[in-house]
Structures are given as structure tokens and as C-alpha cells.
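user:
I keep going back and forth on a fold encoding question. Separate attempts, laid side by side, tell us more than any discussion would. Would you put together a sequence-and-structure record for a protein of your own picking? Write it directly below this note and I will take it from there.

assistant:
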Amino acid sequence: MLELKSYLRSLERSRHALTREDRPKTFALAGREWDLLDGVFAPPFSATTEVALKILGLVGDGEERFRRQGSFLEVGSGTGVIAVSAALAGCRRVVATDISSSAVENTRMNAERHMVADRVRALESDVFSALDPGERFDTVYWHSNFVLAPPEYRYMTEHEAAYVDPGYRAHRRYLAEAPLLLAEGGRALLQFSDRGDLDRLYELAADCGRELTVLCRYSFLERTEILEHILLEITVAA
């Protein structure tokens, strides 16, 4: 398990995913075709995006985790699969943010490909920094970069930000700010993993005055390893 949690291993996975000779320009997922730009996290090389679709109830018979007719904010949109799928599922307003300009463009391309560009707005943003003041959402969601890197680590590429979070700085911001962006009755969701430091996450939540509730756990095989992803709801502590 310590090897699974190694940030060095995750960084090597990031470098390999950028340079693989079989990296495609398009890929199939959940019965649809998607564009993939250079420098953007590649769902064909990891089961985690498909797992996210299942956890959120966007494919199959999974439990619905958000208001289908409501508004949806995704942090770290990458190719835009989740954001576009939320729009296709009925969300009337979707905002997708990513720190990578390539990922923002990729999300826009896939929104156009699937004819929901009128409902999906993609923004280059460090977590919530580019949002309009006063914007509120029925669902705020982040499939996080759950592997903990040392606080002093500095990203060599934007792509690495999809894999590791130095000092869990982004996680602290998300825990603190996500509940403040909710409309009445909304939900702040965080998809985490047993590759991350769950104990540290709970400590950060307590420091921020937040409580974490496990909504579901999903185990799956990735290559030769059994991994578990955890969907958490963040609420303001009583």
C-alpha cells in the first residue's frame, strides 16, 4: 500500500501518460467518442474517469448523486467527460474549471462535439479563482489529485497537477470553499482514493470546520491492482 501512495510513482505515471506512443487523439468511453488533446489527463490509460461516471450515477444503474435539472460545477475537468455528461444528463448549467489551458480547450471541444456548448462553460481556474462572485451551484464536484506530495514539491508540468497535490494545499482550499458555493439544498462532493491519505484529509476537514460523510465506496481493478475510490460529501460542521 505504501507503494500505491508514493508520489514519485504517481509522477512517473504522469510522465509516461504524456509520452506513450499509443496515446490517441480520440477515445471511446461510456458509449460516446471524446477528443483528447496533448498535455491533458488521458482517460484511456486509467479506469478512474469511468469510475467517476458510475459513482455519480451518470452511467448504468448507479444512485443519482446530483440534481439532474440543476447546476453543476466540476473542478479539474480534464477532457470534460464528467462536465459534458452532466449536461447530457439534464443539468441546465454546467461550469468546468481546470488549471490547465489545454484541459479547458479540451472540455470546450467535447462540449461542442456532444452539442451541449450552450450549457457548459469551461474556465481556466485555480480551483475556484475564476468563478463569478456570487455564483452558486446545486452540485460542486472534484475528482481530486488525491496523492499527497511533499509541501515543497513544485510541478514540472501542468499535467502533474492531475496526479499529486503538494501538502494537500488544493484539498484544503476545496474543503474550506466548496460548501460556500452551494445553492440551498446543494451538495459538495469529493471523489478520493485509497491512494491518498484519508486520515490527513479528515484532519484538514476538521481544521476547516468541515465534516466528511462517506456516500459510497467503489473498488475496481486497474492493471494488476485493486483500488478503492470513495465519494465524500462535505458539510459545514455543526
